[in-house]
Write a structure and sequence with these properties.
- This protein is of the alpha+beta class.
- 47% of the residues lie in helices and 19% in strands.
- Strand 4 and strand 5 form a beta hairpin.
- Helix 1 crosses helix 4 and helix 4 packs across helix 5.
- The longest helix has 29 residues.
- It starts with a helix and ends in an 8-residue tail after the last helix.
């Protein structure tokens, strides 16, 4: 007979393992959201065995809880992503359960009445399998070149990690300067406060606020641009600033620094996109 506190602890550890595996396989960093979602899942599973609340254990309710846990861990990114995460969660949960049963079989009744040793053995095998799958993903994924990028504007400097994107060859049609796309959130201390707040929304809906912020400073007004660019597969209007930029080890050059309210990297590996032309600008050369 398993007590409620044992059931709660068992589900908390199992849900935490499965959610951590989901984050690992999605190539993201673990956060405190894993613990929050695991607590939710463990509480749900515990409540479902109480008299009067057993309807919580129905198929639809269990799937709803799985979607909620996935969204808590990875934030809302649309139904397609949520359902994909749910499918992966179910596969991972089945794998953990199967490896736990394998551990029980290998123990051959040596731990009768104590489910923790077989579960621990299954959890170790489970995580070894997850780590192996993650390393296989990394080895087969296309290699990305991420470089440190320094940007300078109006006496302000910031250092960002930038992905060298062969598709990022856009130029400002007025000046011909290369375009660098950066996450607004990564430049919080780089931008004037009012401009930073105005850029929180898509450019076309925030144009009045951006114009008001530019009126307070002629330097902003003179360097401001509005361009239509393609970022992360979608075309969007972005505000840009004429600035200076360089890949560390290269020569500084004039650029148009375009700011997007969206995240460019779901795992936070980089916060800017630059074209290969930035890497070709070496110290002491003009190309």
């Amino acid at each position: 007979m398993v007590s409620l506190d044992q059931l709660m602890a068992f589900n908390l550890v199992a849900d935490g393992l499965v959610l951590a595996a989901l984050v690992r396989l999605r190539g993201e960093r673990p956060t405190w959201r894993i613990l929050l979602a695991a607590c939710l899942g463990a509480s749900w599973a515990t409540l479902a065995v109480l008299p009067g609340l057993r309807e919580l254990g129905g198929l639809v309710q269990e799937l709803s809880a799985g979607v909620l846990m996935a969204v808590l861990v990875r934030r809302w990114r649309g139904w397609r992503t949520a359902l994909g995460d749910l499918g992966l969660l179910l596969l991972l949960a089945a794998a953990l359960a199967g490896l736990t049963l394998l551990g029980q079989g290998l123990a051959a009744g040596a731990f009768a009445g104590n489910p923790w040793p077989p579960f621990a053995a299954g959890a170790v095998l489970f995580w070894l399998a997850v780590e192996g799958a993650h390393r296989w993903q990394q080895s087969t994924a296309p290699k990305r070149q991420i470089r440190p990028l320094e940007v300078r504007w109006q006496g302000r400097r910031s250092l960002l990690w930038a992905l060298v994107d062969t598709g990022c060859e856009a130029r400002d049609p007025l000046s011909g300067l290369p375009v660098v796309i950066a996450e607004r959130a990564a430049l919080r201390r780089f931008l004037p406060r009012r401009l930073y707040e105005a850029l929180a929304r898509p450019a076309l809906t925030a144009s009045a606020d951006v114009a008001a912020a530019a009126q307070d400073d002629d330097r902003i007004e003179r360097s401001l641009r509005l361009l239509q660019l393609r970022t992360v597969g979608d075309a969007e209007w972005l505000f840009g600033l004429r600035a200076q930029g360089r890949i560390l080890g290269g020569r500084e050059q004039p650029i148009v620094l375009c700011l997007t309210p969206r995240r460019l990297s779901s795992e936070g590996a980089f916060a800017a996109l630059v074209g290969p032309q930035m890497c070709r600008m070496r110290e002491g050369t003009g190309s």
